[in-house]
Amino acid sequence: MSEAAEAHYRRGIEMQDAGRLDEACDSYRAAVANDASHAKAHNNLGVLLQSQGDLPGAAASYERALGADPALEPAIRNLAAASILLGGLRSDAGEFQMAADCYARAIALEPGMAQAHFNHALTILLMGDYEKGLDEYEWRWRLPELDGLVPSFAEPAWTGESLQGKTILLYSEQGLGDVIQFTRYLPAVGKSAQRVLVRCPASLKSLLQRSFPGVTVCGDADPLPQFDVQCALMSLPRIFKTRLDGIPGSVPYLHADPAAAVRWRSGIGTGKLKVGLCWGTDSRSGPGKSMPLRALEPLSHIQGVSFYSLQRGSFAGDLAQPPAGMDIVEAGELRDFSDTAALISNLDLVISVDTGVAHLAGALAKPVWMLTPFPPDWRWRLQGEDSPWYPTMRLFRQARPGDWESVIAKVSAALANL
Predict the structure, then answer these.
(1) Cα angle at 333 between 331 and 338, to 5 degrees?
(2) Are residues 214 and 295 in the same domain?
(3) How many Å apart are CA 107 and CA 119, to the nearest integer?
(4) Fewer CB within 10 Å, N side or C side of the chain?
(5) φ and ψ at residue 206, rounded to 5 degrees
(6) 129, 245 contact by CB (below 8 A)
(7) Residues 271, 214 share a domain
(8) Does residue 245 belong to any structural domain of this protein?
(9) Are residues 59 and 11 in the same domain?
(10) What CATH number corresponds to the domain at position 107?
(11) What is the pLDDT along the chain (418 residues), one digit of tens a residue?
(12) Which residues are CB-contacts of 292 (< 8 A; sequence separation ≥ 6)?
């Protein structure tokens, strides 16, 4: 290592500690110009470039550091972390194979990095690789954001072995839509188990109990009966070796209460196309999936349509100021998903962003147009209007992040043609 390179490197550290980052960058560049094998200077330059938002430049610097010293642990960690961030940028740009490659590089550098495995899972699932993707998806349990959300059981996890004579608990872990989507596996589990228990959010309890009468359904706050093994609902596709061309898609598998449907009918008009609307979600993934009610204003110009609110949560407040000319009926209070299912059973069509309402309509086998953000969730694939998960669903896709305007324009044109 040359003395000049080391001097520039030391000055870079001094400038970095003093907060004079541009001068620090210049010093690190001078160091590697004098000696391209100065791994620490490459690494430190990468850190500063990353702090300035130059992820590609940072990754290149980390790679040069590892080229000079393959065992330099800070560079290994930094390149792995930068690769995850680069993967996110590639995904947002629609470059999904490049995103998958970034995550794979992070995994190669840091095999135990849960975030890299999880992001890799979401990306290759989106591209249709369910065989590898569902295995990788199990890394979600190691994500720090699931701390406190993942239940802890003394009973062993079920991994697909025989359930003869056993009671199994299937539990929810994430969103309401996820619970709805994966309860389609309950009949398959029930074929071999002596008893099936399901623990779910209270808002889904009565709907699931009615739809699966042979299953014992418990709300999140209810005491649990004894059971022998347990499994997350979202792990069932992996256990049943689900592939994109073999998704169990028979619908309906959820059923509204006929008596409740009759009661809700009194708040529904006749003679027009009856369309339910849901435009937002309060879930953790909500910001990218939601839009303000005013974004649906173009729908108000379509004749012969009556709109009904299926919205719950904070976005229901938008109803106080609906778009000009749009009359949205609140047929009654939606206390839980049984009420929502009963209302949907009286409608001709549901138009919803990617929320539990869209999943519910699909599971009820009602026509549903889902407004899909970009990049899409893995279950909606990269292209196409149909969904292998819900045969009655039609997808209206964003072409780029945040572009709801073009999506609503397509929905408007399609609705006018009904």
Answers:
(1) 95
(2) no
(3) 10
(4) C
(5) -65, -35
(6) no
(7) no
(8) no
(9) yes
(10) 1.25.40.10
(11) 588 888 888 999 998 999 999 999 999 999 999 999 999 998 899 899 998 989 899 999 989 989 999 999 999 999 999 999 999 999 989 999 999 999 999 999 999 999 999 999 999 999 999 999 999 999 999 998 877 767 789 999 999 999 999 999 999 988 899 999 999 999 999 999 999 999 999 999 999 999 999 999 999 999 999 999 999 999 999 999 999 999 987 999 999 999 999 999 887 877 789 999 999 988 776 578 899 999 999 999 999 999 999 998 888 888 888 888 888 988 788 999 999 999 999 999 999 999 999 999 999 999 999 999 999 999 999 999 999 999 999 999 999 889 999 999 999 999 999 8
(12) 279, 280, 318
**Does 152 map to a domain?**
no
Counting every residue written for the chain, the total comes to 418
Residue 29 has φ and ψ, to the nearest 5°, of -65, -40
Q: How many domains does the chain have?
A: 3
What distance, in Å, lies between the first and last C-alpha atoms of the chain?
A: 74
pTM of the predicted model as reported, rounded to 2 decimal places: 0.91
- The structure tokens listed for 370 are 């889902």
| Token digits of residue 146 | 């699931």
Q: State the residue range of the domain holding 349.
A: 258-416
- Say whether both 205 and 85 belong to one domain: no
Handedness of CA 393, 398, 298, 360 (dihedral sign): positive
Asked if residue 138 and residue 7 are part of one domain, the reply reads: yes
